[in-house]
Amino acid sequence: MKEYVVIFEWAGSNYSVYVPDLPGCISTGKTLEETENNIKEAIQLYIDTFREDGRAIPEPSFKAKAISVAA
């Protein structure tokens, strides 16, 4: 099992999400939950395509952490 960082962004009327370690692996959704489910499916399809093509699956390299600051 691999764990990839995903980045969620509010796009004004929906969420978009991408995976920095998997170029071109993106998705959208109306809610965070829907968007998360959609990107999980997109990641699996991305990995399946790499396997079918005989390419090495990119290793996770990005790390993320929320940092709280007074604003």
UniProtKB/TrEMBL annotation:
<protein>
    <submittedName>
        <fullName>Type II toxin-antitoxin system HicB family antitoxin</fullName>
    </submittedName>
</protein>
<dbReference type="InterPro" id="IPR051404">
    <property type="entry name" value="TA_system_antitoxin"/>
</dbReference>
<dbReference type="InterPro" id="IPR035069">
    <property type="entry name" value="TTHA1013/TTHA0281-like"/>
</dbReference>
<feature type="domain" description="HicB-like antitoxin of toxin-antitoxin system">
    <location>
        <begin position="7"/>
        <end position="61"/>
    </location>
</feature>
<dbReference type="Pfam" id="PF15919">
    <property type="entry name" value="HicB_lk_antitox"/>
</dbReference>
<dbReference type="InterPro" id="IPR031807">
    <property type="entry name" value="HicB-like"/>
</dbReference>
